[in-house]
Write a structure and sequence with these properties.
This protein folds into two domains: about 250 residues, Spore Coat Polysaccharide Biosynthesis Protein SpsA, Chain A; about 70 residues, no CATH class. The longest helix is centred in the N-terminal third of the chain and has 24 residues. The protein has nine helices and twelve strands. The radius of gyration is 21 Å and the shape is globular. It is α/β, with parallel strands linked by helices and about 350 residues long. Helix 1 crosses helix 6, helix 3 packs across helix 9 and helix 4 packs antiparallel against helix 6. It has a seven-stranded mixed beta sheet, with helices on both faces. Strands 5-10-9 form a three-stranded mixed beta sheet.
Length: about 350
């Protein structure tokens, strides 16, 4: 068994390396995975997508560029409650004026259905083979997108890649234009700072390092055909970066985000860096014209409304407080003086949990 396991591991490694090389030198690489087809013997389970008919006869007279919202998720309590809240607000804004929001899919990369299949339109993707993620579960995200794009019937011509901890705060139009995707620029994605490392995956002959945009795969609105080109490269580059000790150490938890940015550049797909795409409380204080609240950071305050960053506050909201059970309904609102962005976040979580059936079960 030990010899067979060694041969299997070597064959997978060589296969990944070979396909990565081909993807790096060809901007028109076909959509494919790097694994033998017997790893995909279970057909994915696809729920009926949400209805994406146009909202009125008046709007029918105008050509709309609908996008399909896709959220990758695990089957953990932590990931599931966030996705349920996210889907609640998607439905609230989907058909309002100004929206180009079409269908919705939760891409569940657990390899098996869960109890929320009837509640949320879901595609079940296989996780990476055991050990290939090297303990970094986020690497399942690009692999899940590859499977979904290969197998699912996606009527829309555009894809909006979102995450469970996104709350939509208003109808989202198709922000991409002129052949460019629309993406949020992250201050901590800094290709110039890591040029020496990134050149291992984005060779000098492919262009200046500035061609790599400071983005991740989410939030991004992109043409479906272009995402089909990017997805396998995103997957393979991310896997190769994780195997590279220098890249793994430099990029840590944002490694897969760099993988997507590199893949976009390798395929010459540019991005509109759309700062108004979302806010991230508590650092962003007002919702303003933004479309999404991304609650990735903990929000801690004393009872006078003063922030206590790095210290658990007398009042706090942190998604990581709810890893084994969902947040209760009717969370206590922040004290006076707390920024509007945080107040809005908690109110929207409360409204969702109050209206989602069987919430605390």
């Amino acid at each position: 068994m030990g010899y067979q396991s060694l041969i299997y591991t070597l064959s997978i490694t060589l296969s990944v390396t070979f396909i990565t090389y081909n993807l790096l030198i060809s901007s028109n690489a076909p959509l494919r995975t790097e694994f033998p087809t017997h790893h995909l013997h279970m057909d994915p389970i696809i729920q009926k997508p949400t209805d994406h008919r146009r909202r009125s006869s008046k709007e029918d007279s105008k050509e709309r560029r609908l996008f399909h919202t896709a959220v990758t998720a695990m089957d953990s309590v932590y990931s599931t409650w966030q996705t349920r809240v996210m889907y609640y607000w998607f439905k609230r804004f989907k058909d309002l004026p100004g929206s180009d929001m079409g269908g919705f899919t939760r891409i569940l990369h657990s390899g098996k259905p869960d109890r929320h299949m009837e509640e949320i339109p879901t595609f079940v993707a296989k996780p990476l083979p055991a050990g290939m993620d090297r303990g970094f579960i986020v690497l399942n995200r690009p692999y899940a997108f590859v499977q979904w794009l290969e197998k699912a019937d996606i009527p829309e011509d555009y894809i909006f890649m979102a995450e469970p901890d996104h709350i939509i705060v208003k109808p989202i139009p198709n922000l991409s234009k002129d052949g460019l995707a629309a993406a949020f620029p992250f201050f901590y994605i800094d290709p110039k700072r890591f040029e020496t490392i990134l050149r291992k995956f984005f060779p000098v002959e492919r262009g200046p390092i500035s061609d790599i945009d400071p983005i991740g795969n989410s939030p991004v609105i992109i043409e479906k055909a272009k995402l089909k080109k990017i997805a396998p490269t995103w997957m393979n580059v991310s896997l190769e970066m994780k195997k590279d000790p220098e890249a793994d150490k430099a990029f840590g938890w944002v490694l897969e985000m760099y993988g997507y940015a590199i893949a976009s550049a390798l395929h010459n797909i540019g991005n509109i860096l759309f700062k108004d795409f979302m806010i991230q409380p508590p650092w962003d204080l007002e919702v303003g014209k933004k479309f999404i609240i991304h609650y990735t950071y903990g929000c801690d305050y004393d009872m006078k409304g003063r922030g206590t960053p790095g210290k658990i506050g007398e009042w706090r909201f942190d998604k990581r407080s709810y890893t084994v059970k969902p947040p209760p309904r009717n969370l206590t609102l922040p004290p006076p003086g707390v920024p509007e962005s945080v107040v809005t976040l908690v109110k929207m979580v409360n409204e969702a949990t109050a209206n989602i059936p069987d919430w605390e079960a």
